[in-house]
Amino acid sequence: MTRLSVVLVGDAECRAAIKGRLRGRRDVTIAGEIGAASALRLIPLVAPDVVVLEWAAADVNALTVLPWLHTLPDAPWIIALGATSGVAEQQLVQALGADAYATLEGPLPLTTALDRVAALHGPVPHAA
């Protein structure tokens, strides 16, 4: 079984909620957690398969981070994590380059987004 390495970007409360949703998934490894914009520079060093980016994180400007992630060598898949299932927000994050959009509650759960990203993109980009 191929494991997806995931970096979580967002506030501490949101990161804890994400880890709770992913608990028990043997196909996912949390490779890192980032709560401050200054730590974003570590993402290329970790080279995760997926970045889960909290759209409304207090210390991270998702509007600039999302396009920046696409400039990285071996750019990770990106799941934008929003607060609502509003269509306008989903369209915006996808226009900025997110591969999927999810909420922690409601009709677009994070686990479904992870499954969708993996299915759409085929093999994990960094898998050996």
Structure description:
- With 128 residues, the protein is an alpha/beta fold.
- Helices cover 36% and strands 22% of the residues.
- The protein contains 5 helices and 5 strands.
- It has helices spanning 12-22, 43-46, 62-71, 87-95, 110-121, and strands spanning 4-9, 28-34, 50-54, 77-82, 100-103.
- Strands 2-1-3-4-5 form a 5-stranded parallel β-sheet, sandwiched between helices.
- Strand 3, helix 3 (62-71) and strand 4 (77-82) form a beta-alpha-beta unit.
- It is globular, with a radius of gyration of 13 Å.
- The two termini are 12 Å apart.
- Helix count equals 5
| Secondary-structure-derived class | alpha/beta
Q: Report the β-strand fraction as a percent range.
A: 15-25%
Overall pLDDT, averaged? 86
